[in-house]
């Protein structure tokens, strides 16, 4: 059973007007996580808009444009706690134009709540959000069938939507789906059980959030991955020869005396010390930030990764990945980009775009020629330097990367190493190069 120290990161998603912000507001309000002055401000704003009851969506829709249009544009993060668990919540936008923001909100989530309007059922945007959750390997998905009050609290309506979504989720290989009928506006099955749906015997949304165990979400599991962020060399009279490597342990654990290998160089040494917040420790566990010292003075710099000897990925300049394109400018073969992987940034070329995902039936559209904003597809990249990239299915941190426009620094694409939905088509889409970016 989770205790008060456990933390669950979760994201909400769904189509426009499915009630995401209202659900978040209801969760905060009914779990007594809203301060009195916040609630008073919402009540005042609601009255000014001619509403008799407080509009709980205003607790999360903080941008002026969001309040004016009644939609969510940016990712709104909220932190709250109950006696059983602490939560970090990301309320992500529903409009197709802002699907890219869900990638941000769900990238670190242990669970995703996908809302569906009971009157509309599963729509294209529902399928898109489910695909993003599957792509990001979110371990748990909650299907919240909202606005059941407008569907007469009818069990057949809920059952039909739950069956349809479960079939789609199975084709995406989402490991666990929990369907809950709710009314965020009325509060049914959000924090307290509904008096209108006695046919439902499952948990409320909050009860499920408090008790779910995030399968595969434990960062300390598996072999260690330690991306170096900073090399500490004081070169003072007190510490003339000190050389420490500071960073955040992305996965697993490191121990004093453990043999480690530096990637991508492949040089090996042994951990001689671990410093955590000024205290020497024998073991560091993800996601701790620590400083590590080694037995040998190796050429290590920002972007190198320490791994247990014999359990690291093979560094390579060729990378095949599933990506979600985030920018309005399309991604095309031959694009010259910067690839940011953990703490290292290198030049790269998009050599090929073998396929784009079709959301309706999850088929692969071969050789699309480009990826537009919000498209999910497969890309083949060539980097200027070898990178120790893990399969994203095994390591979410060291298996992910960003593509950045070298001209203006804009984030273009979020990538997950490996094949998420299907094998890419064969072919060599190498692009000609005349500016020194052909690796």
List keywords for this structure.
439 residues; alpha+beta; 6-stranded mixed sheet; 6-stranded antiparallel barrel; 7 helices; 22 strands; globular
Descriptive overview:
This protein has a six-stranded mixed β-sheet, with helices on both faces. It has helices at 20-30, 36-48, 64-69, 99-106, 124-135, 155-171, 205-211, and strands at 7-14, 76-82, 85-91, 111-117, 140-146, 177-181, 226-232, 244-248, 253-255, 259-263, 268-276, 279-281, 283-285, 289-294, 305-308, 316-325, 336-341, 344-357, 364-366, 376-387, 400-404, 411-417. It starts with 6 loop residues before the first strand and ends in a 22-residue tail after the last strand. With 439 residues, the protein is α+β, with helices and mostly antiparallel strands. It is built from seven helices and 22 strands. β5, α6 and β6 form a beta-alpha-beta unit.
Low-pLDDT residue spans: 62-73, 421-436
Shape from CA axes? Answer: globular
Distance between the termini: 52 Å
Helix proportion: 10-25%
| Class computed from helices, strands and strand pairing | alpha+beta
Overall radius of gyration: 24 Å
| Spatial order of strands in the largest sheet | 2-3-1-4-5-6
Q: What portion of residues belong to β-strands?
A: 25-35%
Give the helices and strands as they follow along the chain.
EHHHEEHEHEHEHEEEEEEEEEEEEEEEE
Per DSSP, the total helix count is 7
């Amino acid at each position: 059973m989770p205790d008060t120290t456990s933390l669950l990161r979760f994201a909400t998603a769904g189509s426009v007007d499915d009630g995401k912000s209202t659900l978040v507001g209801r969760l905060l309000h009914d779990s007594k996580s809203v301060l009195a002055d916040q609630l008073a401000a919402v009540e005042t704003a609601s009255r000014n808009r001619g509403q008799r009851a407080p509009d709980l969506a205003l607790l999360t829709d903080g941008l002026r444009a969001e309040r004016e249009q009644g939609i969510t544009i940016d990712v709104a993060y909220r932190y709250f706690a109950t006696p059983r668990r602490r939560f970090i919540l990301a309320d992500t936008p529903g409009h197709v134009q802002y699907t890219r923001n869900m990638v941000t909100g769900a990238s670190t989530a242990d669970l995703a709540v996908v809302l569906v309007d009971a009157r509309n059922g599963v729509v294209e945007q529902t399928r898109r959000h489910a695909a993003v959750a599957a792509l990001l390997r979110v371990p748990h998905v909650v299907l919240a069938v909202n606005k059941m009050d407008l569907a007469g609290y009818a069990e057949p309506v809920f059952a039909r939507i739950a069956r349809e979504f479960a079939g789609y989720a199975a084709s995406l290989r989402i490991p666990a789906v929990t369907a809950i009928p709710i009314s965020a506006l009325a509060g049914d099955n959000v924090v307290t059980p509904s008096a209108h749906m006695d046919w439902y015997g499952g948990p409320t949304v909050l009860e499920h959030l408090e008790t779910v165990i995030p399968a595969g979400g434990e960062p300390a599991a598996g072999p260690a991955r330690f991306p170096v962020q900073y090399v500490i060399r004081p070169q003072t009279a007190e510490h003339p020869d000190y050389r420490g490597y500071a960073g955040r342990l992305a996965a697993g654990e490191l121990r004093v005396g453990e043999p480690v290998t530096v990637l991508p160089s492949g040089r090996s040494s042994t951990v001689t010390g671990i410093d955590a917040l000024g205290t020497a420790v024998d073991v560091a566990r993800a996601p701790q930030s620590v400083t590590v010292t080694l037995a040998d003075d190796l050429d290590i710099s920002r972007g190198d990764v320490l791994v247990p000897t014999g359990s690291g990925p093979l560094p390579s300049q060729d990378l095949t990945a599933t990506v979600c394109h985030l920018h309005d400018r399309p991604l095309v073969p031959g694009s010259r980009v910067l690839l940011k992987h953990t703490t290292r940034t290198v030049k790269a070329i998009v050599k090929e775009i073998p396929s784009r995902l079709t959301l309706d039936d999850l088929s692969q559209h071969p050789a699309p020629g480009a990826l537009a904003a919000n498209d999910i597809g497969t890309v083949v990249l060539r980097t200027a330097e070898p990178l120790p990239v893990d399969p994203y299915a095994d390591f979410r941190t060291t298996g992910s990367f960003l593509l950045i426009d070298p001209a203006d620094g804009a984030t273009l694409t979020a990538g997950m190493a490996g094949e998420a939905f299907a094998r890419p088509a064969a072919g060599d889409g190498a692009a000609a190069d005349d500016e020194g970016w052909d690796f």
